Each structure stands twice: as C-alpha cells, then as structure tokens.
C-alpha cells in the first residue's frame, strides 16, 4: 500500500489542486454576486400579481422576448413593494412592469387603452405609445443597483 501512495502521490496532489480551484471559483462567484434592488411604487390595489419582464436588448424588446419575475402583492405597503434579486447576470437590461390584476399574464385593453397598470425601470411613461428601449434600459454589473418603477394607470 505504501508503494501505491508513493507511486501516485503526484496524481493525488494534482487532483487536490483541481478540487481547490473549483471550490475557490465557486466561492468567488458566489461572494461577488451583485444585487438588483427594485422599488415599485404607485400600485393601486392588492388584486393580482406584479409581472416584471426583463429585456436584454432593444431587439428583444421589439420582439417581446424577455424573462419574467412574478411578485405577489402581499408585502405591499402604501402602494409600494421592494424586491431584490441576486440571480441576475451582469449586462444591460430594461424592465417593463404589468400590474396583472386578473392574473391572465397579459395586458388588458378597453378601446385600445390599457386597463391595468404598467411601468418601466427608471422611466415614467406619460404617453400612450411604448417607449424606446434606451429610455428605460440600465447597466447592471460590478455594484449593486437600485431601479424605481412608478406604475401608471390610465
């Protein structure tokens, strides 16, 4: 047995180095994760859910290609909800919000006018047309980031 250990000692050392590297890489990426804080204000009631669509580019926004986060309104106080995410990768994003009061996962309209609340990251839409991506996009990277979304109802 002693000869076996002597013969394969360098293999064990190499294996230990690989394990140490993998653990170090995991800990570094976990410890350096940044947090995206979102303040949502102006919510008019507790019916339904808040739906956040995260767009990564103007092209994704144009093609309505996003990934979603859903927020229960149970933690709402005075029309405001605070949420934080640590699972968002660094990059450019734009967030569109829908106050989906009937939980059907889409914006409802009456005579082409939205009947549910909507909003955008760090941008308050005053018109009836969709804003361009660059009006509500932001960079998320090396530091924690806070964005504010004010919900608008028509």
* Number of spatially distinct domains: 2
Rg over C-alpha atoms, rounded to the nearest angstrom? 23 Å
Mean pLDDT figure: 87
> Main sheet?
5 strands, antiparallel
String of helices and strands: HEEHEEEEEEHEE
Low-confidence regions:
16-31
Percentage of helical residues?
Answer: 25-40%
Describe the structure using short key phrases.
154 residues; alpha+beta; 2 domains; 5-stranded antiparallel β-sheet; 3-stranded mixed β-sheet; 3 helices; globular
Walk me through the structure.
This protein is α+β, with helices and mostly antiparallel strands. The chain has two domains: 32 residues; 115 residues, no CATH class. Helices cover 25% and strands 34% of the residues. The protein is built from three helices and ten strands. The protein is globular and about 80 Å long. The termini are far apart.
Short characterization:
Helix content is 25%, strand content 34%.
List the helices and strands and how they pair.
Blueprint lengths: L1 H30 L4 E6 L7 E7 L2 H5 L4 E6 L7 E6 L5 E10 L8 E2 L2 E2 L3 E3 L12 H4 E4 L4 E6 L4
């Amino acid at each position: 047995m002693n000869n076996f250990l002597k013969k394969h000692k360098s293999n064990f050392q190499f294996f230990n180095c690989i394990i140490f590297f993998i653990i170090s890489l995991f800990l570094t990426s976990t410890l350096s994760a940044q947090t995206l804080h979102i303040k949502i204000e102006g919510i008019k009631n507790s019916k339904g859910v808040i739906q956040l669509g995260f767009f990564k580019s103007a092209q994704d926004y144009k093609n309505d290609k996003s990934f979603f986060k859903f927020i229960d309104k149970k933690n709402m106080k005075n029309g405001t909800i605070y949420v934080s995410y640590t699972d968002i990768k660094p990059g450019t994003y734009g967030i569109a919000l829908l106050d989906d009061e009937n939980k059907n996962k889409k914006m409802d309209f009456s005579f082409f006018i939205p009947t549910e609340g909507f909003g955008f990251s760090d941008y308050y839409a005053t018109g009836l047309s969709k804003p361009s991506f660059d009006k509500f996009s932001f960079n998320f990277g090396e530091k924690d980031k806070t964005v504010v979304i004010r919900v608008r109802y028509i």
